[in-house]
Amino acid sequence: MDVLVNIEQPLLEKKPALPQRTPKTPAQRTMRKAFKGTAHLAKLLPTGTVLIFQTLSPLFTHQGQCHTITSKATTAGLLTLCGISCFLLSFTDSFRDERGKVRYGVASFNGLWVMDASVRVPVDETEKYRLRFIDFFHAFMSILVFLAVALFDGSLVSCFFPKPSEEANELLKALPFGIGILCCVLFYAFPSQRHGIGFPLSRN
């Protein structure tokens, strides 16, 4: 007795056609570039450093009171240490090893000094991790952006400027915005390719 086996090939599903991109108006392109440039500011600040500052600032300033010289000195020390951290972390970078694991290191004139000594950067990629003048430029901008974030902190401003004059009050309000816009323009013109400790990583 013969058994007939009916083997049916599945029908090939037609893939839906991708929708065509609608052309953007000049205003939409300008807004897109503006938002993209603003998003680049996140690359200028290590998130961990900013988080530590925003957490410890109310404690060190006693909610902006700063009754003693010690509280002002410790607050100034916190501000200085966080600024130095932003500067130094700007020289860190990362790469993915053969297993796809992210490895961190410090940029030098000879390449990337990897913190895990058992892993090496591929020889053909050493050149792109070398320390350059643009890294010092980005480190300086990182300090400026951190200063703008610090000036937005009410506790810090109340600690060092308890009773500011009208002119000083206007300057304290306008200065962070001016620093942010300036750094946004400069960073959009000279973007950073580094993805160091505390900075957002790329997909690759």
Automatic annotation (TrEMBL):
InterPro entries: DMP. Keywords: Membrane, Transmembrane, Transmembrane helix. It comes from the Eukaryota. Its main location: membrane. It holds the Pfam family DUF679. GO terms for biological process: endomembrane system organization. The chain crosses the membrane at residues 133-152, 172-190. The keyword tRNA-binding does not apply. GO terms for cellular component: cytoplasm; membrane. It is a multi-pass membrane protein. It is found in: Membrane. The keyword Acetylation does not apply. PANTHER family: PROTEIN DMP3, PROTEIN DMP7. Belongs to the plant DMP1 protein family. This is Uncharacterized protein.
